[in-house]
Amino acid sequence: MKFKTDPKKDPLFCMAPWTHTFISPQSERRLCCASREKPSYIQQYIDQDGGDMSDKLYQPLSLEEHWNSDYMKAIRLKMMNGEPVPECEICQSQRLHIYTYKDYFTKALFAHLLDKVEDATHADGSTDWRPRSFDYRFSNMCNFKCRMCGEQLSSAWEHEKKQAGFWSPKDQPWMIPEVRDKIDKFTEDVVEKEFDAAVERGDLEEIYWVGGEPSIWPKHWETMARIIEKGDAHKVHVRYNTNLALISWKGKHLFKDYLPPFKSYQVCASIDAAGKIGEFVRTGLEWNKWLEHFESGVPFIKLRGPDSLVMDLTLTLPGLFGIEELLDHALRLNVKMYVKIVFAFDPSVMMSPLALPKELLVPYLDKLIKRIEPKINQKTMVLLETLQALKERQTFMEEYPNWKDGFVRGRNFMQDLARLRGDGTRGRLRIEDIFAEEPEILRWWEGKYL
Ligand code: SF4
């Protein structure tokens, strides 16, 4: 199949449909974690609208059924013809990051394959290539309940919602016990086996460990040990999004023992703010323990480069108040930061800085920028750039005519969570304690703009 575009110059072209595969903890397959696709039976936070999903059944696809499906073939053909792929809108609009996931696959990880795509693609868009990069979320097992996350990606959230009765079979069909059992069985019988087969064939070039929390999955540690044992580690790049809950397994340390044999690695240690504010945003976080685990990996940075261990931030509204302290730690440790903005496709996402009205957001960001700008360095520059870019974004008030309804729903939900989690007790902050630093923001939270 011949290109009708130049894949090296075309801003719409991406290598992921030829190289990468993703499955969610609920068995939804996707091009990657940044694509917005039609759900098969449950909508994920980033998906396109799936319409009424209540009549959809859990009918998961194996990788073989998915990889050269009509859907995947059509996407490859569109990309080779230089046509936009609606599912890839996130990369095209740079909506979440100022650097895109597409560039990672196309310009970095698989640039060496660009010249071979034509030969690897048949006229109907099918390919003989197998995926060589896996983002397989074997489970939602996670010990944290980050407030911008949810039950799909955290078993702790799932448990909390079940206990509190904050779920329904219509909204979370995957939490129905019979469906949950089917998911577990499919994961064990199909998902784990197809991944294990790729490991055994030795044709993996990348694994993205993300969850759930991969560091508490035995599957993660066993796979890493198996790749090392097979002598294939030198061919494989490993990438993590981890809360650093566990950094050793069976007496061996992640940075000292598991990672060194790999071709390269990148550990994105999720953190959104330092100290008590960080613990507010990421329920379950013990800041001092996190810092200790992070620091244990820092000496290895000099061996594997500045991207081998980074502080990976998601900018949230309460998190902004603890970001300067986090920056100070990044500067002290001389480490890099990566920064993204919390997903917000709905005006009820009160964890988003964009929930603030512009007349409060911009002056607050200006103050923050003024404080951090003099100390920012090259490794943390992206924080400054993202804060500056945030000022230009549409706020919920500007984007959503129904923002008031979103505000009320979102705040009610946050207040329910605060009660459930005992905010304000046992040394835990309340969101009001955080916002109190900026009285106008506190007044907005109390409903001044409604
Ligand atoms: S363009 Fe972006 S969203 Fe689309 S497949 Fe590539 S990385 Fe994923």
What is the beta-strand fraction?
A: 5-15%
The unique ligands bound to this protein are: iron/sulfur cluster
Based on helices, strands and strand pairing, what is the structural class?
Answer: alpha/beta
Q: Sheet bearing the most strands, described? A: 8 strands, mixed
Question: Which percent bin holds the helix content?
Answer: 40-55%
Arithmetic mean of pLDDT: 94
Calculate the terminal CA-CA distance, rounded to whole Å: 56 Å
Identify low-pLDDT runs. none
What form results from the Cα inertia axes? globular
Order of strands, widest sheet: 2-1-3-5-6-9-11-12
| DSSP E strands, number | 12
Number of helices: 21
Rg value: 22 Å
Give short descriptive properties of this protein:
globular; 21 helices; 450 residues; binds iron/sulfur cluster; two-stranded antiparallel ribbon; alpha/beta
Question: Strands, helices and their partners?
Answer:
Elements: H1 16-19, E1 20-23, E2 29-30, H2 63-67, H3 70-80, H4 89-93, H5 101-109, H6 117-120, E3 133-136, E4 145-146, H7 155-164, H8 177-201, E5 206-209, H9 218-230, E6 237-242, E7 248-249, E8 252-253, H10 254-258, E9 264-270, H11 275-281, E10 282-283, H12 287-297, H13 301-304, E11 309-315, H14 317-320, H15 323-333, E12 336-341, H16 358-372, H17 381-392, H18 396-399, H19 403-421, H20 431-435, H21 439-445
Parallel strand pairs: 1-3, 3-5, 5-6, 6-9, 9-11, 11-12
Antiparallel strand pairs: 1-2, 4-10, 7-8
Helix pairs in contact: 16-17
The structure holds iron/sulfur cluster.
Iron/sulfur cluster binds near residues 17, 31, 35, 88 and 90.
